[in-house]
Amino acid sequence: MSVSFQASAVRAAVLSLISVSALAQTAPATAPTAPVSTLREVTVTGNPLGSDAMVQPVEQLSGDALVLRQKPTLGETLDGLPGVSSTYFGPNASRPIIRGQDGDRIRVLQNGGSSVDASSLSFDHAVPIEPMLIDRVEVLRGPAALLYGGSAVGGVVNVIDNRIPREPLSGIDGKAQLDGATGNRAAGGSAMVEGGNERFALHVDAFDRHTGNVRVPVALDCEKPSNLGLSRRICNSESQSHGGAVGGTMFFDRGYLGASVSTYRSRYGTVAEDDVTIGMRSDRYALEGEYRINALGLESIKMQASHTDYEHTEYEGGEPGTTFRNRGNELRLEARHLPIGRLQGLIGLQVESNSFSAVGDEAFAPYSRTHNTALFIHEELPMSWGKLNFGARTEHVEVESFGNPSIDRFASGKYSFNPHSAAAGALVNLTPTWALTSNLAYTERAPKDYELFANGPHLATAAWETGDTSLQVEKSTSLDLGAEWKSGPNRFKATAYVSNFSNYIGLARTDDVLSADGERNPTDASIETFPEYRYSSMRARFYGIESSGTVRLAGEQGLTGPLAGGTLDLQLRADLTRAENRDTGEPLPRIAPARLGATLAWAQGPWRLSGGFDHLASQDRVPEGDRAVPSYTLWNAALGWRTQAQFGALKTNLLWFARLDNITDKLAYSATSILTTTAYPKAPLPGRSLRVGVQASF
Questions:
Q1: Is the pLDDT of residue 691 over 90?
Q2: Hey, which residues does 675 pair with through a beta bridge?
Q3: Residues paired with 220 in a beta bridge
Q4: What is the pLDDT of residues 493-529, one digit of tens each?
Q5: Which of 684, 662, 677 is nearest to 91 (CA)?
Q6: How far is the C-alpha of 31 from the C-alpha of 605, rounded, in Å?
Q7: Which of 94, 297, 331, 625 qualifies as a FRET site for 618, CA 20 to 30 Å off?
């Protein structure tokens, strides 16, 4: 897919949306109908059997709630959900953190399939997913290794964009969106069109987004030639991104077969360095199908396959520097067996292969290849009082280093691991309004290539990272207990959890420093040096609690004055995460502090109005050398209005929206961002910003 095609598609979508919006000004207001949705509103992540109730803790975002939360990155979009925070390497690179765990312990999926990039390797590497094109995002908290591998021990984020339609369509539908923001001078647009019948379906989407340097409440120095001096902006935080996809599905009596091709292009500033930008590209090819066999003891067979070609180059002052490349393939087969009494379940095969390379002076990991083959089983047993589920997974992982033809400090070699995992869970319906859940999991994760072979300066962490080829399989045991209450619009849920690692693989600081060319403990004081951090095993514990709830304060008949005729809800959320190195007693780094939030939400017909705050306590439980972060409170407000417009024979639903973030323009720093320690004060959280936009769906 060419860049010119993408740009043309976005321009066409933008012009169409402007025309529809203009027409809406003259069209008579009518009661809006429900927005068109081509996806069933069911949670699929960690729930392959499609059960109505989940044993694992899950959050789902879609519709208006997702539109109002959208930020330029996936991590910032999800930040603030119970148990979820963000790595926040500035406004352009941010990956989700779940229950204090990040990197390769959090699995990011696209439509249930593998998403290949380099975001888990380094904090400054962005996730090549555009939030404007997401239909639904699901966050599965806690161990999900049975279905998705040891790299999902912390949780799973599944981004669903319907690029391969899984259900027949009737006619043509789609959506388009325009939005902009004052804080980062953002302007963006996206468009999606789907059409089909009982036999065929086609999906096309495209997006384009530009942002400037992000406004903050304090003057910061900038040495970038185009922005020299002091300003109330984060230096080198601008970005440009665009992309799109084409997908299609053929349906037949017993299933479907579909394919998609997608591309993502971005260029953004890295924030930590004033004149370094990253140029990224990602091309993904996916194939998916399902066949309902109803024979040989099997109900259906589902297949997913994908190939991703990812590359990014780091530019220093406009000159290309280090280039990172990751090519990945995945094949996933799931065979659902016919019920055995009340027992339902599936068995699966997953095969993944990744080839990684880094070329340039800042390559801190060698050329490598990782191959993973896994078998898994997942079973559910419905009971009169709820249900039980259980499963197991076994993997064979091979990690091989080929060194680097330009750098001789990397070790070569091939290592094999055989991780095994098992889990069991229960859902107990105590009453029609109360339910209890519990999950117990034992998980093993094979060391990653960089954990074994890294040996070089990593500028994103401001450290010399050293791998250890003697590392063994990481092992953990996790338990969570949850309770949920529902009564009409009122609901509450809370989950407490603990994860014990017998050999958690983490970066631990040594007493040595190294120069850029690898000299250990140089005596020349004029030479730039990096503190050494070595990947090593330690005993570790993660534990905490997360909760959320909604209380209906007033119904349609209980409000007076300008709010009469609407409903008023109080939405509450809170979480607490603790993590510690059990060998030393020190806290683990980059753990979110205790958080408490509340929102008042009013709704009446097509109108939605909300306002609230998120308070983050101080985080002084940090390891030696890390920066403690004081407490802060961020206030926000949002407004939405749905209406309709007639465009010829086409009836269009319009959502006009506005969101004001950090209303008090509070200066704050993220406790989960490594930049708070390594590049302070360069990257505070964004200051006050107003985002406005319109989304049209038909």
A1: yes
A2: none
A3: 231
A4: 999 999 999 999 999 889 999 998 888 999 888 888 9
A5: 684
A6: 8
A7: 94
Q: Which structure tokens are listed for 298?
A: 């099997």
Report how far residue 105's alpha carbon sits from residue 182's, in angstroms, rounded to the nearest whole number.
35
Q: In the numeric block, which tokens belong to residue 349?
A: 């095969």
Nearest to 593 by CA among 575, 574, 619: 619
Give the integer Cα–Cα distance in Å for 288 and 217.
Answer: 48
User: Can you tell me which residue has the tokens 């996206």?
Assistant: 190
**CB-neighbour burial class of residue 298 (10 A; exposed 0-12, middle 13-18, buried 19+):** middle
Backbone angles phi, psi at 482, to 5 degrees: -135, 155
**pLDDT range class, residue 147, cuts 50, 70, 90:** confident
Q: What is the mean pLDDT of residues 635-662?
A: 92
**In terms of DSSP bridges, do strands 106-110 and 155-160 run parallel, antiparallel, or are they unpaired?**
parallel
Q: What is the mean pLDDT of the chain?
A: 90
- Give me the pLDDT at residue 614, please: 98
User: 553-592 pLDDT, tens per residue?
Assistant: 988 666 777 777 789 999 999 999 999 999 999 999 999 9
* 628 pLDDT above the threshold of 90: yes
Report the candidate in 595, 131, 124 with the shortest Cα–Cα distance to residue 362.
124
In 3D space, the residue among 74, 429, 416 whose CA is nearest the CA of residue 266 turns out to be 74
CATH class of 3-288+307-318+434-455+476-697: mainly beta
Q: What is the pLDDT of residue 20?
A: 35
Long-range pairs of 68-74 with CB within 8 A, sequence gap ≥ 24: 68/638, 68/640, 68/657, 68/659, 70/131, 70/132, 70/179, 71/131, 72/131, 72/184, 72/186, 72/209, 72/211, 72/239, 73/126, 73/127, 73/131, 74/108, 74/127, 74/129, 74/131, 74/137, 74/157, 74/159
Q: Give the SS3 label for residue 596.
A: strand
What is the chain's alpha carbon radius of gyration, rounded to the nearest angstrom?
25
